[in-house]
Amino acid sequence: MRVSDLLKGKTATVMMVQPTLAVGALAERLRSAGVGVMIVSHDGHALDGIISERDIAYGLAEHGATLPVLQVKDLMTKTVITCRPDDTVAEVSKVMTVRRIRHLPVKEGDTIVGVISIGDVLKSRISEIELEANVLRDIAIAVR
């Protein structure tokens, strides 16, 4: 299975925010959208960074009560690891596990075409394992 297969079951809209948005406003956007991460882009196309719930939690520990007025660019992760639609789910699973990343932007050339989560990857891997188990069970029954 490939990353492009994971994207088929997701909305085509990539959630983006401006780097100058206040962190308090970002937190509200994350909550209302029901997502854990947003792409940071100054122009709606470039990948300037990524901002997650984890970044906000760490920011709270570091900045305390001043956190809501800080800008997204003050907390965002600037060096973003990405994947491609033709990467395998096994490949991105390894990257996400080793790097302790819960969300990966998917880029096709210079265009961000989606974001996958560790939940998307796990769901896919579980489906593959269940299919394998069913096939093996069917083979075992047929051999009897």
From TrEMBL:
Question: Key word ATP-binding present in the record?
Answer: no
Gene Ontology MF terms: kinase activity
User: Which domain of life does this protein belong to?
Assistant: Bacteria
Q: Where is the CBS domain?
A: 76-131
Query: Which PROSITE patterns does the record cross-reference, listed alphabetically?
Result: CBS
The record's listing under InterPro entries reads: CBS_dom, CBS_dom_sf, Diverse_CBS-Domain
Q: Which Pfam families match?
A: CBS
Q: Which UniProt keywords apply?
A: CBS domain, Kinase, Transferase
SMART domains with a match to the protein in the record: CBS
The protein here is known as: Histidine kinase
Species annotation: Rhodoplanes roseus
